[in-house]
Specification:
Pfam families: YbeY. It comes from Flavobacterium cerinum. It is an enzyme of class 3 (hydrolase). This protein has helices spanning 15-28, 43-54, 81-91, 95-110, 118-135, and strands at 2-6, 32-41, 62-66, 72-80. The chain is α/β, with parallel strands linked by helices. The protein has one domain (2-135): Collagenase (Catalytic Domain), CATH 3.40.390. The protein has a four-stranded mixed sheet, sandwiched between helices. Helix 3 crosses helix 4 and helix 4 (95-110) packs across helix 5. The radius of gyration is 14 Å and the shape is globular. It starts with a strand and ends with a helix.
Length: 139
């Protein structure tokens, strides 16, 4: 089950299409869908979590808490819409594409992909691009 929660004045356009897409992302990695909660928030909310839970005093676009058991993907993915908007402007990409990149990023972590080394980051970016392209395919 995929759910979307909002801590700010923001709402995904077409939640059903995003839900189908995330399910497809999970399925494309030969995993099963458990309970995945997306929580959309602002920089202040996510910064507080980053300090409290990860001891990182920095801004970030996404923090994920992984509850995956075996191949059943589950977790809470917190996304700063404010940071995503700024990153989209910095990278000169569409906000919706950058948002989907971050949404896929959390799921890919649950599937076992890492991003701490340059090699891992390149694979993660490639996987993000692959998963974003799934969204544009008509269901």
């Amino acid at each position: 089950m995929i759910s979307f929660n909002y801590e700010i004045e923001f709402k995904l356009q077409d939640e059903a299409k995003h839900e189908e897409w995330i399910s497809e992302v999970i399925d494309s990695e030969d995993k099963s869908e458990g309970e995945v909660n997306y929580i959309f928030c602002d920089d202040e909310y996510l910064h507080k979590m980053n300090v409290e839970f990860l001891d990182h005093d920095t801004l970030t676009d996404v923090i994920s808490f992984d509850y995956t058991m075996g191949s059943i993907i589950s977790g809470d993915i917190f996304i700063s819409v404010e940071r995503v908007r700024d990153n989209a402007a910095d990278f000169k990409v569409d906000f919706d594409d950058e948002l989907r990149r971050v949404m896929a990023h959390g799921i890919l972590h649950y599937c076992g992909y890492k991003d701490k080394t340059e090699e891992d980051s390149q694979l993660m970016r490639s996987k993000e691009d692959e998963k974003i392209s799934l969204f544009h395919v008509e269901q």
